Amino acid sequence: xxxxxxxxxxFYPGLLFLILILLSTLPFYASSYTVVRLxxxxxxxxxxxxxxxxxxxxxxxxxxxxxxLGVGVxxxxxxxxxxxxxxxxxxxxxxxxxLALLVGVLALRLxxxxxxxxxxxLLAFIKHLVLWLEAQITGTRGRLVILVDTDTIxxxxxxxxxxxxxxxxFMRRSKLGLALQSIGEYEEAAAHVGIxxxxxxxxxxxxxxxxxxxxxxxxxxxxxxxxxxxxxxxLYSFMPVLMAIFGxxxxxxGPVIGAAVFAYLEELLLTEFPYYYMLIFxxxxxxxxxxxxxxxxxxxxxxxxGGLVRQRANxxx
Amino acid sequence: xxxxxFLDVVIGGLLMGGIYALIAVGLSLQYGxxxxxxxxxxxxxxxxxxxxxxxxxxxxxxxxxxxAICGPIIFIIGFILHRTLFTRLxxxxxxxxxxxxxxxLASFGLLFIIQNIALAIWGGEIRGYSYLAFPVNLWGAxxxxxxxxxxxxxxxxxxxxxxxxxxxxxxKAIRAAAQDPAMAGFMGVNINQVLAICFGLGALMAGFGGSxxxxxxxxxxxxxxxxxxxxxxxxxxxxxxxIPGSFIGGFLLGLIGSIVTYFEPGLALIAYYGLFIxxxxxxxxxxxxx
Lengths: 317, 290
Known about the structure:
- The complex is a heterodimer of chains A (317) and B (290).
- Chain A is mainly alpha-helical and 317 residues long.
- Chain A has helices spanning 2-24, 26-29, 32-58, 65-79, 85-107, 112-137, 150-173, 175-185, 187-193, 197-223, 228-231, 235-247, 253-272, 277-291, 295-316; strands at 143-144, 225-226.
- Chain A is 82% helix and 1% strand.
- Chain B has 11 helices and 2 strands; from the N terminus they run H-H-H-H-E-E-H-H-H-H-H-H-H.
- In chain B, strand 1 and strand 2 (141-144) form a beta hairpin.
- The A-B interface holds A 59, 61, 106-107, 110, 112-114, 116-118, 121-122, 124-125, 128-129, 132, 135, 234, 238, 241-242, 245, 275-276, 278-279, 281-286, 289-290, 293 and B 37, 85, 88-89, 92, 97, 100-102, 104-106, 108-113, 115-117, 120, 225, 229, 232-233, 236, 240, 266-267, 269-270, 273-274, 276-277, 280-281, 284.
């Protein structure tokens, strides 16, 4: 009995450790094409998990992810030549954190659909503001970004990925995570229990934005050329929402699995059907919302539970 | 000279405002009654614009006459979409708030589907045609006749729709469904039918708006999102769900855009979004919202 419990307790950390070792040695045995593809899958996982850190428990639909990513991208484009890479990535995370603090202070009073509309309007606002500023100051639309080799991008992405997962994990276990959960259940009651509702929301929102900004700063180096339309593409706001729903938000691994599977599918669709990729994307979005409200994980759990019930029925007989 | 410039800016703003108002009324109806914040609203505008363009360039049908053809087509598309997709979502959602979230995301899916079907059919080029494009002189300020005609039509359609809501039996059912869908259902309103009609009517307004846009401006399959965002801004400006609010908001936004464009053309969009963000923070319920 005890052995079973400890082996079960060691199973998931062991599995994670194995995956981490496989990932961290990837550039030694895989082709550089695989490394590039995995970097972009890691990017989507980070975006989705950090979206789910805040929006999962609270139920506030944030469409600000693309704004945070774009701010990171521009940090990298502006400071790229002046500073070493780790510092740029750090500053990318920091600027994104500050933007999220500002947005949080202003907008987290808004509930429900208003918050979603606000964050989406903010994205359009920042995009056009940057476009106008670039035209006024530099007289051009886009910028060139420094080149970084694919292995370095991959390792930086991996570090951000691990940090995001650890943050998400410990956040769920902490008092802060419980407070967030209770805000999602019933915000007024949470406030009455003595939770500083506004503070909890703002801090979580800002912390979750750090990883998105850092991701933007490193991924910008892969795109080499950026302009506001690339950096503030609304797709980066919707993808994390879709991927989190696709995976299921009840568990931490839901968004991770959702993002990984979906990002892989996206790469596949892009190479196989470049013209119909967006059409297929739309159909998948509608179908997932209609038929998989609890996501892939919900589906798997349903099967698994069904299996368990049958097992129990068997033992009783 | 001063007076002419002033007229130029004000009338120009009102002309734009008429179209804004019409598309915002459609969105307001869809959100206020059917509770769907339809982000694919602009795609119905695009469909209206392309159907009108197609009828004019291929069959030579007068764009104002083709309103009678394009309107019903788009209404039926909207009606069927609500009966299949959104009704199902509404029934399976655990709470109204959950439905608002999931229908928002589903309408994003629709956006990509409709836009990419249009791109596959018509390609990515910018299209346009010329109809009633002769100049009209209004006290020294000069405008194209087609823009004045579209403003007139937009106002007439808006008024007719308002009377329909206020005076007819179906209009009463729609207003009841907006206030309390469950109670309206108890009173014998076929709620699924009424909500689907509302969604269809919202799409119809978008289609009409699209027809007018195609008369005055050039069109392309990816034009939708820009108008969707404008419609959302107007609806928030006027108060979510308020039809007269949307009308006032439309003209107000048209005027603001016209004034800002006069001073600094590059800032018009930034002014729209800035105003929108400010408004959400100061008075999220809008001008006429409760």
